[in-house]
Amino acid sequence: MELFSPWKQDETIALAISGGMDSMVLYHVLRTTHAYASGQLILLHVNHGQRTASIEEAEYIMKMAQQDGHICEMTTLDIPSDAFSQERAREARYQFFDTMMKKHGASILLTAHHLDDQYETILHSLLSGRHLPGAMGIPSDRDMVDYRVVRPLIGATREEIAAYARHHGVVHFEDETNSGTDYTRNYIRHRLMPSIKESAHLQEEHLIRLRDDMADIDGILKAEAETFLEGRSKTLPRSAFNAQKHIIRFYIMQAWLKADGVELRRRYIEEIMAVIASDTANAAFEAGKTSIVISYDQITRKQGKDENVDVLRIERDGSYVFNGYRITTRLAAHQYPLEVRTKEAGDRMKIPGTGTKKLSRIFIDGKVPRDEREKMPVILDSDHQIIALGEIYNIMGNKEKNSRLLIEKEFTDEPEK
């Protein structure tokens, strides 16, 4: 079987070996026809701890490695079943890989992704709305901080790998969870791909052409974004930004934030862009230590705690965003200005029918997370009296009855599920 093998003969390489057919076939090829194509081979096995059979599988892999004279490192993930997710498992695996690669001085980590994985990944990106030009599919190799991930089987189909396993009698284990359709990737694998392969009018190979075309488009869009950002640093003109096509705006925002080392999910960037395109006069979004501040015709990127915008002044009716909360005001002229800020030591609020109460006690009674307390809007009237606290208290009335001062938690950078 042909391998994509861009490593040197004296390099120490590691193989992420799950025990499934793909990685066991790759191990067999490395042990036979490619036995002298590299230096030392280290096996890395991760037991996800979700199946009873995985214990015996791990024992088999360890015994196999010892018989073949290879070092084998193993770990078992400590993720409860009710909290298990593919994303959490992947993060945990790569933490283990990072540690082991450094421990053994390995420069190449091999994974057994193949051509059908490539097709499924491209479809998943397209159909889940997470696609971006230039970011589709699985790269044949990728640089990490201290090593390089290489996928030797990326040009081989699942059929070819299965045929190799049968011909050479490669022992492997089936993970029964792979046959279900609970996970999106499994649904694509078992429900969509077979129909595509069976159709005389559909060729999955075109997905690779789509990926390559999108990579070319990615280069064009990046160049457009660079042209717009030329001569502009921390501040962007809002009207000129909004005049660009939607996809160009996305690339501009992505590149502009990356200048501060900020990389956000597409959903959060889209939320920011939606506010920039709206008639909202003032808004602020948090992205780690960076704030994106929208103020009339300017979009400003500010970094560091000293630069974060903690106060918003509202002088007329309108819709405003503050730390992920939308504040809508429809007040009489004499009720302005309003001051919106975050909590301060000693803050107290008058609760109708109760008396005054410290904000710190309100947070505790409401079991508000500590990080949420730091960004929740505290609204003061023109007499500097607190009249509202986030969605918790609003002297002017609740959401259903109040239309003069409405506060809603709307924007968030929570991870996508």
From TrEMBL:
Any GO MF annotation of the entry: tRNA(Ile)-lysidine synthase activity
Domain named Lysidine-tRNA(Ile) synthetase C-terminal: residues: 338-407
Keyword match tRNA processing: yes
Alphabetical UniProt keywords: ATP-binding, Cytoplasm, Ligase, Nucleotide-binding, tRNA processing
Family: Belongs to the tRNA(Ile)-lysidine synthase family.
Keyword Iron: no
Record remark on domains: The N-terminal region contains the highly conserved SGGXDS motif, predicted to be a P-loop motif involved in ATP binding.
InterPro entries attached to this UniProt entry: Lysidine-tRNA-synth_C (IPR012796), Rossmann-like_a/b/a_fold (IPR014729), TilS/TtcA_N (IPR011063), tRNA_Ile_lys_synt (IPR012094), tRNA_Ile_lys_synt_N (IPR012795)
Record field: catalytic activity: cytidine(34) in tRNA(Ile2) + L-lysine + ATP = lysidine(34) in tRNA(Ile2) + AMP + diphosphate + H(+)
Matches recorded under Pfam families: ATP_bind_3 (PF01171), TilS_C (PF11734)
NCBIfam families registered for this protein in UniProt: lysidine_TilS_C, lysidine_TilS_N
Taxonomic path: Bacteria, Bacillati, Bacillota, Bacilli, Bacillales
EC number from the UniProt entry: 6.3.4.19
Name listed for the protein in its UniProt record: tRNA(Ile)-lysidine synthase
Role, per record: Ligates lysine onto the cytidine present at position 34 of the AUA codon-specific tRNA(Ile) that contains the anticodon CAU, in an ATP-dependent manner. Cytidine is converted to lysidine, thus changing the amino acid specificity of the tRNA from methionine to isoleucine.
CDD domains reported in the protein's UniProt record: TilS_N (cd01992)
Matching SUPFAM superfamilies: Adenine nucleotide alpha hydrolases-like, PheT/TilS domain
Binding site for ATP: S18, G19, G20, M21, D22, S23
Compartment(s): Cytoplasm
